[in-house]
Design a protein that fits this description.
Elements: H1 8-19, H2 24-31, H3 35-45, H4 50-87, H5 91-100
Helix pairs in contact: 1-3
């Protein structure tokens, strides 16, 4: 994930200036970003306080890590299934693996 040049505090400060009535074009030029970035920030961080924005970022990072873990476990499961099919292990072993492994949606 690309790291931003701006901290949550800076982004929320810019958004508060936007809400106070500053022109978006002037604010974008001053900050050094496009107007589209300001509107993207507004859709993501609009109405949040700094602590809430930090918590949002932490939750997004945790969600990303969990998704990677699920993907890795799914690959491991498929590899084990392939080995079982190749080696012709007993049917009961295959059923036990399928029964004990939760499916991922």
């Amino acid at each position: 994930m690309k790291k931003t040049r701006f901290s949550e505090e800076q982004i929320i400060g810019v958004l508060k200036q936007m809400e106070a009535g500053r022109k978006v074009a002037d604010l974008a030029r001053e900050v050094g970003v496009s107007e589209g970035i300001l509107y993207a920030w507004k859709s993501k961080f609009g109405g949040l306080e700094v602590s809430e924005a930090r918590r949002l970022k932490e939750l997004e990072d945790e969600n990303r890590r969990l998704k990677h873990m699920v993907a890795d476990l799914s690959l491991d499961k498929e590899a084990l299934k392939a080995v079982i099919r190749k080696n012709g292990c007993a049917r009961g072993l295959r059923e036990a693996i399928n029964r004990n492994t939760p499916s991922v949606a």
